Amino acid sequence: MKKWSKLSFSFLLISILMFSLIACNKDTNQKQEKLQKIRIAEVTRSIFYAPQYVAISKGFFKEEGLDITLTTTPGGDKTMTALISGGADVALVGSETSIYVYSQGSNDPVINFAQLTQTDGTFLVSREKIDNFSWEMLKGKTFLGQRKGGMPQMVGEFVLKKHGIAPHQDLNLIQNIDFANIANAFASGTGEFVQLFEPTASIFEKEGKGYIIASFGKESGHVPYTSFMAKDSYIKNNKETIEKFTRAIYKAQQWVETHSAEEIAQAVEEFFPDTDPEIMKTVVERYKNQGSFATNPILDEEEWNNLKNIMNEAGELPQDVDYRTLVNTEIAEKIMKK
């Protein structure tokens, strides 16, 4: 009888364990099935967007029940096309694009709901090392600028004018090179100065191809340089999803704010497999020091007005669009209160 009892007990124990494993596996599968898919189209792959990659790598999106598919769609026009055509749910792109779309008479405007970066992300790089740089030194020189109508170009011209330089009169300004080929053009000998994003600027400096001498981000002040946006209809029909998305971004922004450049670089390294870890650390530190990463997702009215001023100075503001027309801060304010 005792022998039978032991065998029965063992069988019962094994049965319980197997049932638990099956139940656990079923529960995990159900949780995975419940994850809501969100398609993000980012305008470029850049360390400048570190908080976004932190939200993915640290599992902040998954904590909110979201399954993120991230696609790089080079150029603001391509990113907006992806969003408007339904190829993406959310776009990470410069806020100026929402103004361009609105000015074309869209019945379903693109709304900025969470800001990611709050300064320009480009740097002035010279071919020769300059110890005591002044903006006056650019006069009469060949300057390799960014694409006309984009935020880098508009900020670049805004900063030049701020320092008394007329971009199209005082410089030999080159703007007919595609964004993806600007760095290569400079490396091959075009221009004496160039406006570059990181990590290219730091890589050039390390390789002796150029020298970082000024920051356009420091010079231009706070501006909604890159924001998450979605069509108005999508936000209205997916309020809870957008709230979860914004909460994940806010968690990432707070994480970035409270961690070192080295820790941030390690957290995002999977997105930049071909970039030297030391370069990544340098880039993150540079962006952190100049306050490029927004510490919360709220795009405030002063930043919006600064954006319009920069666009207007460049002759690229199609119409004056009120802050509340294309910016929704209710979601960000709600999640921050909690």
Automatic annotation (TrEMBL):
This is ABC transporter substrate-binding protein. Keywords: Signal. Belongs to the bacterial solute-binding protein SsuA/TauA family. The lineage of its organism: Bacteria, Bacillati, Bacillota, Bacilli, Bacillales. Coiled coil: none annotated. It comes from Neobacillus thermocopriae. PANTHER family: ALIPHATIC SULFONATES-BINDING PROTEIN-RELATED (PTHR30024), TAURINE-BINDING PERIPLASMIC PROTEIN (PTHR30024:SF47). Residues 50-259 form the SsuA/THI5-like domain. The keyword ATP-binding does not apply. It comes from the Bacteria. Its main location: periplasm. It is found in: Periplasm. It holds the Pfam family NMT1.
